[in-house]
Design goal:
The chain has 159 residues and is an alpha+beta fold. The protein has one helix spanning 5-30; strands at 58-61, 67-74, 77-79, 82-86, 90-96, 102-106, 112-115, 121-126, 131-136, 149-155. Strands 1, 2, 3, 5 and 8 form a five-stranded mixed β-sheet that branches. Strands 4-10-9-6-7 form a five-stranded mixed β-sheet, with no helix packed on it. The longest helix has 26 residues, at 5-30. The chain binds dinuclear copper ion. The site of dinuclear copper ion has 7 residues, from loops.
Length: 159
Amino acid sequence: MKVEHYERIWFWLASALIAGFVVAVVLSSTLHAIRPPSHVETIDPGLVRSGSDFASPRVERRADGSVLVVGVAEMFSFRPAEITVPAGRPVTFRLTSPDVIHGFQIAGTNVNVAIIPGYVSQLTVRFDRPGEYLIACNEFCGLGHHLMQGRLRVEGEMR
Ligand code: CUA
């Protein structure tokens, strides 16, 4: 079968483009741990403030040293607003919203999730560098959007 000269050029150009996209996906997922959400769990937004586990936002330290954060993002605050976790331990965030879409981004880390009413956003991360981190809402959610922030404190291992 005869392949035209220009057809061959376009074939290789298209192949190189696709290979480039695949490399970008592989690098961002392996080097930067950027991944699509993998947890799907629904919740009635009307039950978030009372009648669900989210009625009492909290930071729970489990016996095995891991941490569970049950949090609510709402107009215009995060609850709990201050989260303290130990460094080097798995921290599982379970987050939802009773009103509109919010963002939950921890500056300087790869934590960046959308908080969507009706859904529970869940992710597990490990923070290796002790320090204070800003938690910001990065989805415009109304007039107080810019006021919506929290703080994450990562404490060094205590022995
Ligand atoms: Cu919440 Cu912007």
